[in-house]
# Entry
Amino acid sequence: MGQRQKKNIRLIFLYLAFYGLSNGVWSDFAQVWLNEQGITISNIGMIIACATFVAGVIVILLTKYIKKVNELFILKLIFPLKLVFLTLMILAAYFSIKWLCILTFIFDAITDNLVASVTYPIISYILKSDKMYSKRKLVEYSATDLGLLIASFLIGRQIGSWLIDYNTMIMLALLFTLCSTISVMFIKNEKVFFAVRKNNIKKIFKDKILCFYLVYFFIGQVAYFTALGMQLLMLVRYGQFTSSTAALFIVVGCICGDIFGMLALKKLTPKNDYVTILTKFALRFLFYLAIVIFPIKEVLFAGVFFSLFISRAYENKTDGIYVNRCDKADMFAFSNLRYIFGYMGKALGTLIIGFTFELGLRYIFGICLIFVALQIAMALYLIKMRKNEAKWLLC
# Structure
């Protein structure tokens, strides 16, 4: 890897860090902010689902029709648009324009989903590995946690005559997004970004493991967002936290998860992939089951904390190993295809929690248990498929 490529990698991780800070200070509070604008929780679920679905449609169009424009160009177009949407969001809240609040929230959520879909293909063109996949995630996660930590200490505080509220968090998100935009603009185009892309979806669907992984990824997203799609609102309603305390609880769980994720990447990953999967998902299933049996806030805290703690670990085994099966030429098509499945899963999961939120914890986590059980079964079967493939190649 040459000096220019190393510099580009550093700039990519820099924009990810600022982008993570922007998400941290704002994304978890966005749902509460919408609720304060007079929008019901079930409608918030529908709004998030709508934004996620539209992002999936845009990704389909990118995969099908974009051939000459590379991912870096898309990224350099998305970030200025995000700056515009955040600015309009501030104005909409200031002038109490409800429809504009909803519209700008949807557009901002769409840009977030698009950033996620093009980031790893850009990295993989320079250096593709399972560890790099996890490293990219951990950088973004750590920055997001730091942003959430900053927000949890600032929200509700009075500085002179200035009350730090949710609108202030949007302003902070705007500032960090501006820094991220500047970092993106300094990334230099390279020949590797313009490598001939084979948008050959049929080739991807011929790989049985990748096909099964895409369905597994969809189910995993449904499972996660059915339980934690509105985690801050859930802790405020059912955990009887304030918004700042709920944010602090979430960030402590995430930071512990980041530390464990880094240790897991270096030393604590079990050699047996079955053990890795059961550690990540089966324990989560048991915590969720405990919430269904004992729907009290103490058990809720334990279940949410563990889910946040373990969600950052072992992504090199649960996702990276399958994402990196693709050749570099197919990475853009597969990455977009993967995010389409992920967006649909997130949309469905958020829609479900939106409708079950008022019914209580037993309904929220009871439905989620079905998807978590299916996720575990599919993850274990994927390992079996890989082992059978390895035996066949050896023979």
Summary: Strands lie at 158-159, 162-163. The first helix runs from residue 3 to 36. The chain has one domain: 3-394. Residues 3-394 form a domain with the Growth Hormone; Chain: A; fold (CATH 1.20.1250.20).
